[in-house]
Design goal:
The chain is α/β, with parallel strands linked by helices and about 325 residues long. It has eleven helices and 15 strands. The two termini are about 40 Å apart. It binds threonylcarbamoyladenylate and magnesium ion. The site of magnesium ion has 3 residues, from loops.
Length: about 325
């Protein structure tokens, strides 16, 4: 059974506490209902992926109360200023470079150097953002592969008790996800069509704004496929049971019995050559640490990164998907 409450001051205050405690809230916006968590808390973000049952880590949209708050997370440029001026609050998501020191969890951004930010045009979303005081990572509140929810009941039917509290505020006005506009490259590109059209964007930005699939006829048309994934420079070796000399270790669970062939124990490697996704074998903690630790080990100058086996259950499926892609360098 889901916990659904009519959105009012009291339930919004309760939802803010759920967010601050690392929980998940069904959040009404003008586009679709979102599944929201504290974007700064990697373990809370890991719960989003678990609840959606996504077999992979896609980057999530980070919701903020206003353009100024967005500017604290990402580097804004002249196009972003114009787009924000014309369409925020509203159904437009902007992809921009992450600011140095941006505190949003690496998992929420799938390890990418860019971040998707949006200012929702909905009283309840705005009230929750203000009440909890943190940016909210929120994909649509449905299990992976099903339709996006436009009523609180859709959220309850899809996610059940995986969501701690659903704030009910009737059907969504737009009922279609936000337009995703990439402003991090040489020209603005719409990665996902939505409520705001490319024509409207061209007008506001004063430049031609194209849909991603119309740029290259041979390119894949699914926005998900246009997404570049973060890939380390150092090769990854999966399901390692020991280390070759010169390799760094990405451990999961106890690393007590990991040895370096002919050269002692892994625990005696220099600190920059060793990371542990979760010493206790907690998959939420492992997901939260995944991108940051791969990046750190990528800096160590190792011949390869040996990764211990991660169970193929729950969030382990998405973690393994990400590791396999990094290992294959696609
Ligand atoms: O209307 C909406 O946008 C809803 C409500 C809840 O705000 N949210 C939503 O989120 O649809 P989600 O996670 O289902 O969609 C996120 C989209 C995906 O297509 C993803 O690939 C893209 O944004 N995206 C996110 N970060 C990106 C990045 N750094 N680069 C390129 N695309 C990105
Ligand atoms: Mg979705």
């Amino acid at each position: 059974m889901s916990n659904i409450k009519t959105a009012n001051n009291e339930s919004i205050a309760e939802a803010a506490k759920v967010i601050q405690a690392g929980g998940l809230v069904g959040l009404p916006t003008e586009t679709v209902y979102g599944l929201a968590a504290n974007a700064l808390d990697g373990k809370a973000v890991a719960r989003i992926f678990e609840a959606k049952g996504r077999p992979s880590f896609n980057p999530l949209i980070i919701h903020v109360p206003d353009a100024q708050s967005a500017g604290e997370l990402v580097e804004r440029n002249a196009w972003a200023e114009a787009a924000a001026e014309s369409f925020w609050p509203g159904p437009l998501t902007l992809i921009l470079p992450r600011r140095a020191g941006c505190a949003v969890s690496d998992l929420a951004g799938a390890g990418l150097p860019t971040l998707a930010v949006r200012v929702p045009d909905h009283k309840v979303a705005q009230a929750l953002l203000k009440a909890c005081g943190v940016p909210l990572a929120a994909p649509s509140a449905n299990v992976s592969g099903s339709l996006s929810p436009t009523t609180p009941l859709h959220v309850a039917e899809s996610l059940g008790d995986q969501v701690d509290l659903i704030l009910a505020a009737g059907p969504c006005k737009i009922g279609l996800e936000s337009t995703v506009l990439d402003l991090s490259g040489e020209a603005p590109v719409v990665l996902r069509p939505g409520g705001v059209t490319a024509e409207e964007l061209s007008e506001a930005l004063g430049v031609e704004v194209a849909y991603a699939h119309s740029i290259d006829e041979t390119a894949p048309k699914s926005p998900g496929m246009l997404l570049k994934h973060y890939a380390p420079q150092t090769p990854l070796r999966l399901d390692a049971i020991d280390l070759n000399p010169g390799e760094a270790l990405l451990a999961f669970g106890s690393e007590r019995f990991m040895g370096v062939k002919g050269a002692g124990a892994a625990k005696d490697l220099p600190a920059e050559m060793r990371r542990n996704l979760s010493e206790t074998g907690d998959l939420y903690e492992a997901a939260a640490n995944l991108f940051a630790m791969i990046k750190e080990l990528d800096q160590a100058g190792a011949a390869a990164i040996a990764v211990m086996n991660i169970p193929q259950t729950g969030l382990g499926v998405a973690i393994n998907d990400r590791l396999q892609r990094a290992a294959e360098k696609d």
